[in-house]
Amino acid sequence: MGEWDAGLFGCFDNIGLCLITYVVPCYIAGKLAEQNGESCMMYGVFSVLGCVGLWSMTKIRGMTRAAKGIDGDYTNDLLMIWCCTLCALVQEAQQWGLHPKSAMGESMARE
Length: 111
Prior knowledge:
- This protein is mainly alpha-helical and 111 residues long.
- It has one domain (11-98).
- The protein contains seven helices and no strands.
- The radius of gyration is 13 Å and the shape is globular.
- The chain starts with 14 loop residues before the first helix and ends in a 7-residue tail after the last helix.
């Protein structure tokens, strides 16, 4: 099994993604759910609902770990989301290769 590409406190490695996550963490939570084949809108809304948000973000973190072959367990995921929510979201986004432009959607060029 593998490890995370970026450390938990490596959130400043991508300052744009860090800022987006700080301002609208529900959006990044939704995009992470989308990367795992779940509903972006539903999990984005779930992420702001207290205990439901804690459960949903922990579930998505576990799905990311499974998809990327990363060691860990539910308890560790729960602790990371509970204690370091924003850093954990950035860590997951970096694992999926999300960048500010891809996270916010790229503009379409007209030809």
